[in-house]
Write a structure and sequence with these properties.
The protein is of the alpha/beta class. The protein has helices at residues 38-41, 43-52, 80-90, 120-129, 139-145, 159-167, 179-187, 201-213, 227-232, 243-255, 280-284, 294-297, 313-317, 320-325, 368-375, 380-384, 397-402, 409-426, 441-447, 452-465, 469-485, 493-501; strands at 2-11, 14-25, 30-33, 62-68, 102-104, 107-108, 114-115, 134-138, 152-156, 217-220, 271-272, 285-286, 291-292, 302-305, 327-331, 336-340, 344-349, 388-391. The protein has 22 helices and 18 strands.
Length: 512
């Protein structure tokens, strides 16, 4: 008897429908075809033990399992459950009237319990797209998949529950998720707060601008000046994710298997802080089986690189293309996968090997050649892609002791949200553009017009600082964000002047 069940293969962050055909005939052999990897082939032993421990058995006949389309490689253990159900249906141990209406995915333990699988959210999206009425998943994935509306999600704890459901001897509980409640829960957990930061008002102002426009930031200063402390508080002033951003971010973390215990939907912006020993593949994604890297896990959030010059130069150079294109394409011999990578880069570094160049009290022990060599660990093209470059100086003792409580993250966030609303209206007709930092050249010309005085100011700054055309665009984008924070439709000269000051660490005039 021939029976078909349905599952999904993950390609990047998208899911592809897989039809699992099970045919049982006379004989005693077991065949599995359709480009299964070792984990899929080993499902035979897991299924056999799981069925036996729940009062069933694989029939002693010739079993042929085909996974179509046959030219797509099938990877992982999530096909255990649809294969097992297909075998039982083909051997007439369960009824088949519901099979065509349901997609099934799940990994089997030897005792028949179902273990969570990766990519439940994109699988649920594909099931709805293909017109299935419902999706059966391990109970641990049910809430994640239930974020998708328009399809019933059934969470099962073991294979016996699934068998009883098909035979009409039991039911599987449907799962519903209140998306609005999830957003409220996520946004109420602020964590770190800028109220803890004493002094550094100019740095907090720059980070507020960066949060309002989604701009990249470099903080350079001596040890203990507060670079890491402030960078870690940046997520507390970022605007809440909108639903589309949340779904995109959750899909990436779902495929990477990083959602267990964190809720069905990512409702706060990611903050990723990899160690400087990270490899290029771990940062941008890839591997023999391509998986999202840190830059994709930071999608719609912050990628924080502390002690920037300590990172391998090759690791830093692979950031250049994703910072411009906001996607990264991982190509292998048999597959090419594209992951979104629209992140804010926030980097921190010391100004020299000893850390005290330009320190107001502690003398630097490095000669100018060593300082230049240290700075040149960061290439010019990467440096050029950082919109806001700031020197952080230590906070005087009197400010640490006497300053009253600083402005809270909630107060700063209110201004950021207001600026983002202006940008949301501005880019409402542009797909995938959510902030000023994402503007393309055409939008830059449309929304960043300057008067004669501002043009003269910018020309003078570019001549003196030796800025590139890319730096010119970055200054315009930052000035547009400053204008949004000032509730202005025009880019005034003072906004442009402030944006220019945030390029004060450019190579031509710093560290010489």
């Amino acid at each position: 008897m021939l029976v078909k069940t349905y599952g999904c293969a993950l390609i990047g962050i998208q899911a592809l429908l897989i039809t699992i055909e099970v045919n049982i005939d006379q004989g005693i052999q077991f065949f599995m075809v359709g480009l299964p990897d070792n984990a899929v082939r080993e499902s035979h032993q897991r299924i056999e033990s799981a069925l036996k421990n729940n009062g069933f058995r694989i029939p002693g006949k010739k079993i042929v399992i085909n996974m179509a389309p046959a030219d797509i490689r099938k990877e992982g253990s999530s096909y255990d459950l649809p294969i097992a159900i297909g075998i039982l249906a083909a051997s007439e141990m369960i009824k088949t009237d519901k099979l065509e209406k349901l997609m099934i995915m799940g990994e089997l333990s030897l005792d028949g319990s179902l273990l969570p699988v990766k990519g439940a959210l994109p699988i649920s999206l594909e099931a709805r797209k293909q017109g299935f009425k419902g999706l059966i998943l391990p109970a641990g994935n049910a809430r994640e998949a239930a974020v998708v509306e328009g399809i019933e999600i059934f969470g099962a704890g073991n294979i016996k529950e699934v068998i009883d459901y098909f035979n009409g001897d039991g039911s599987l509980p449907g799962t519903k998720v209140d998306i609005q409640a999830e957003f409220e829960r996520g946004n109420s957990c602020m964590g770190l707060d800028f109220a803890d930061v004493r002094g550094q008002e100019n740095i907090k102002r720059a980070l507020e601008i960066a949060a309002a426009g989604g701009h990249n930031v470099l903080l350079i200063g001596p040890p203990g000046a507060g670079k890491t402390m402030m960078a870690k508080r940046l997520p507390s002033i970022l605007p809440p994710l909108v639903l589309q951003e949340a779904l995109e971010t959750t899909k990436i973390h779902s495929v990477a298997g990083r959602l267990n215990g964190s809720g069905p939907l990512i409702t706060s912006r990611p903050f990723r802080s990899p160690h400087h020993t990270i490899s290029p593949v771990a940062l941008v994604g890839g591997g023999s089986v391509p998986r999202p890297g840190e830059i994709s896990l930071a999608h719609h959030g912050v990628l924080f690189l502390d002690e920037l010059p300590e990172f391998n130069r090759q690791v830093l150079e692979v950031l250049r293309q994703p910072m411009e294109d906001r996607v990264v394409t991982v190509s292998r011999a048999k597959v090419s996968t594209t992951y979104p990578a629209s992140f804010m880069l926030v980097a921190a570094m010391n100004p020299c090997p000893c850390g005290y160049y330009n320190h107001p009290q502690t003398p630097c022990q490095c000669n100018p050649g060593i300082i230049r060599k240290y700075l040149h660990k960061i290439s010019g093209p990467l440096f050029d892609r950082i919109d806001i470059q700031l020197e952080v100086v230590p906070v005087p003792y009197r400010d640490l002791r006497d300053q009253p409580s600083a402005e809270s993250s909630n107060e700063m966030r209110a201004r950021v949200v207001n600026a983002r609303r202006r940008q949301e209206l501005r880019f409402s007709g542009s797909k995938g553009v959510y902030s000023n930092a994402q503007m393309n050249p055409r939008q830059l010309r449309q929304y960043c017009r300057l008067d004669d005085a501002s043009n003269a100011l910018l020309k003078n700054a570019m001549d003196k600082l030796g800025l590139s055309a890319r730096a010119y665009e970055r200054i315009l984008k930052v000035s547009r964000t400053i204008a949004d924070l000032g509730n202005s439709d025009e880019i005034k000269a003072e906004y442009l002047a402030e944006a220019i000051t945030y390029r004060s660490l450019d190579r031509e005039n710093w560290g010489q």
